[in-house]
Amino acid sequence: MCIRHALSWRAVCALEAGADYLVARNPDDFMPLTVSVVTPAELLATLSA
Q: Would you state the pLDDT for residue 8?
């Protein structure tokens, strides 16, 4: 099974839920989305600002 295919359900769920962010250790695994894909460190920096 392709890793990108296995991870795609997360992107679908984020889009369906209207999420602002999808948090992933490797954002490059996701195609460009309308949801921002960020690392955990990036999300923490955004929330701390």
A: 73
pLDDT digits (tens, 9 = 90+) for 2-14: 445 545 778 888 8
Q: How far apart are CA 13 and CA 26, in angstroms?
A: 17
Domain that holds residue 26: 3-48
Cβ-count burial 2-29 (b if 16+ within 10 Å, e if not): eeeeeeeebbeebeeeebeebbbeeeee
- Domains contained in the chain, number: 1
Is 43:23 a contact under the CB 8 Å cutoff?
Answer: yes
